[in-house]
Amino acid sequence: MPDILVVGSLAYDDVQTPFERRRDVLGGAASYFSVAASLYSRVHVVGVVGQDFDEADLGRLRARGIDTSGIERKPGRSFRWFGRYDYDMSTAETLNTDLGVFGEWRPVVPDALRDAPFVFLANIHPAIQLDVLRQVRTPTLVAMDSMNFWLEHDRDAVTEVMSRAHVVSINEGEARQFAQTFSVIRAARTILALGPTALVVKRGEHGAMLFLRDGGMFWTPAYPLEKVQDPTGAGDAFAGGFMGHLSVTGRCDADELRRAVIHGVVAGSFAVEAFSIAGLEAATPEAIEARYRALRGIVAVGADAVAEAGPLAGR
Ligand code: AMP
């Protein structure tokens, strides 16, 4: 089973939706990613936490078989993020970001992890992502994510990370922001021109699009859910399902990338059903498989559509 290395934030989040507010819940891009990807492969996390980080929260990751030995503990506060969602429960409005120990931190990838074949540069300061890229040796696939915060604060470094990754995964709004265009198609062309083989544009409740440098395109809706409690982490869970699937197959051709996108939206669907990582913790390989098949059925026609019962079947 090929291993996945991830670097990204480990955080405590305050999340406010129109229906509920939760404070100090375990969050961070690396947390969501690793729990999702652990449903597929062995995951190794490189990151940093402060003195306030509860050992039991690292235990929640270890309980999934996630290797936390690359997580340093430093004097100071852990990363904190405070975000709010409106009724559409899609785009988060960041009310506060406190980098805490991530502010000064420079990652050291343990030697044993430098040969990891799959590397995910989860959302974090792009300088940290670049540091990790300098330390890994010959990964089969490097994927990266980022967000508006870093596009505003360090656009040049984000651009460099994009140009060195095989797969760029970004929100629709951020793709538009980065390329400074309304057209997602044009934004895709701009980003792919930097060098990656594939671009994933995440569209929240509308699913995700895949653009390939050779001109190929694929898109899928999101898994239809009636209950969304907290959209936080959907994008990171997406990346976990996406990378997880590729790591299991060991292949990154166009067909596997398409399947990986479906695995991504399925993983995202579990993440949003509960606050923090609880929705992902409740997911099983069987439940993933069932949602994968249901999604295939939704976009199929004719005999294929009949064969795959969707989530509303039997009502
Ligand atoms: P997502 O909803 O997939 O974009 O991921 C949300 C997670 O990213 C939250 O748990 C936050 O702790 C974390 N996060 C928010 N802002 C940042 C940032 N500027 N850098 C790194 N991680 C962040």
CATH class: Alpha Beta
Distance between the termini: 40 Å
Q: Largest sheet, order of strands side by side?
A: 5-4-1-8-9-10-11-12-13
Helix content: 25-40%
Distinct small molecules: adenosine monophosphate
Mean pLDDT score: 95
Rough outline: globular
Biggest pleated-sheet summary? 9 strands, mixed
Could you name the CATH topology? UDP-N-acetylmuramoyl-L-alanine:D-glutamate ligase
Total strands: 13
Along the chain, the helix and strand elements come as EEEHEHEEEEHEHHEHHEEEHHHHH
Number of helices: 12
Low-confidence stretches: none
Radius of gyration: 18 Å
- Integer count of domains: 1
Structural class: alpha/beta
Q: What is the correct CATH architecture?
A: 3-Layer(aba) Sandwich
CATH homologous superfamily?
A: Ribokinase
Which percent band covers the strand fraction? Answer: 15-25%
Which key terms come to mind for this protein?
single chain; 315 residues; alpha/beta; UDP-N-acetylmuramoyl-L-alanine:D-glutamate ligase; nine-stranded mixed beta sheet; four-stranded mixed beta sheet; 12 helices; 13 strands; 37% helix; 23% strand; binds adenosine monophosphate
Detailed description of the structure:
With 315 residues, the chain is of the alpha/beta class. The chain has a single domain (3-283), classed as Ribokinase (UDP-N-acetylmuramoyl-L-alanine:D-glutamate ligase), CATH 3.40.1190.20. It is built from 12 helices and 13 strands. The strands form 2 sheets. It has a 9-stranded mixed β-sheet, sandwiched between helices. It has a 4-stranded mixed β-sheet with strand order 3-2-6-7. Helix 3 runs parallel beside helix 5 (155-164) and helix 8 (234-249) packs antiparallel against helix 9. The protein is globular. Adenosine monophosphate is lined by residues 9, 11, 13, 27-29, 81, 97, 123-124, 147, 149, 232-236.
